[in-house]
Amino acid sequence: MGSSKLTFQSPAENSADAGVTRSRYDRLYTGEGAIDFIGRSKLWYGITLALVVVALAAMLVRGFNLGIDFEGGTKLSMPAGDLVAEEVETTFIDATGVTPELTQIVGAGDARTLEINSEHLTQQQIDQARQAIFEQHQPLDAEGNASPDAIGDSTVSESWGSTITNRMLLAMGVFLLAAAAYVALRLKREMAVAAMAALLVDGVLILGTYALFGLEITPAMIIGLLTVLTFSIYDTVIVFDKVRENTAGVLDSRRSTYAEEANLAVNQTVMRSISTSVISALPIISLMVVAVWMMGIGTLRDLALIQLIGVIEGIFSSLFLATPILVSLVNRQDKHKEHAAAVEAFRNGDADAEALQPEVRHEEAATRKRTVVAPQPTEPHAPATSFTWRPNAR
What we know:
This protein folds into 2 domains: about 35-60 and about 160-340, Multidrug efflux transporter AcrB transmembrane fold, CATH 1.20.1640.10; about 75-155, Alpha-Beta Plaits, CATH 3.30.70. About 60% of the residues lie in helices and about 10% in strands. The protein has helices at about 10-15, 25-30, 40-60, 70, 85-95, 125-135, 160-185, 190-210, 220-245, 260-295, 300-330, 335-345, 355, 365; strands at about 5-10, 65, 75-80, 100-105, 115-120, 150-155, 215, 370-375, 390-394. The strands form 3 sheets. It has a 4-stranded antiparallel β-sheet with strand order 4-5-3-6. The two termini are about 25 Å apart. About 30% of the residues are buried. It comes from Corynebacterium lipophiloflavum (strain ATCC 700352 / DSM 44291 / CCUG 37336 / JCM 10383 / DMMZ 1944). InterPro entries: SecD/SecF_arch_bac, SecD/SecF_bac, SecD/SecF_CS, SecD_SecF_C, SecF_bac. One of its GO terms (cellular component) is plasma membrane.
């Protein structure tokens, strides 16, 4: 009986030899044709730095457009109907001598509402403004009749606004401490530092966006901000869990470096992150269309807007920032520097590769094809039971 050989190959090699065509998602998951997230870390850092600089400049130069709940002040609101915002604003200025901070029409259709936000007004100024607007513009009430009662007003004192601001800052501080404690217990030290750094960037970019475009900061916006920051850190933890799984025992092998295994983890979770973000964005968009555009509910508008901005920004943070920061921190350690050098030397066929990582002794068997050879029988008609099988590595 002639000799025979059995060859063991990795799944990737088997699929390649068999001519199997993998989908784009499969290639991301197995590492074939993967996106080099980690290799482009400098690019992501550069983009992040530029965005952070713009955000900080916007916050310092333009400042924040604090809502009436934080700053205090007076708001007049009325059914918009056929009213023109600029004309009503002029009437308001003539009646009170105060230039409003914001005059806008929100909502759509019959739900359109004209809002005037100004500094704190006395009751006399409020009455004068309501009377002047009614006489010149005749706003209609819910029954379609022109009436001064169609013009509503609300006033928030400066002390109340200060209290709300302090509570907002307290809520942000408690959230950050709770998030830091969670990731410190749930993840490794380097992962916790990277996650909190990415979370800090999230907060700066979102607040910078509000400062840059003059978007109003309201209590609903703060609630939404805490929600999207929680979503961001959740997505980061999911990616880091996969990184931890892939890099377990990486120092005991010269097959790949920590950075390569981390990059594979990001590729394996990229579709999940995108799908989660898209699914999260759908109800937010629905909320903006129905509750904001059609019904003109300002509170829901603020909540929906911050969530939409946060979900979009959170994708960038989880995929392009958190893991590169993690890898940069890990690669500063001597043991990982030595391991990366050992992997490179091994791939280059360096005879001294073993000396660079002396604790690694079994890599060749894990990375090269193994063959099992059936030796020739010593006698031409010897029974098959006399064969001995011994695996040989080549």
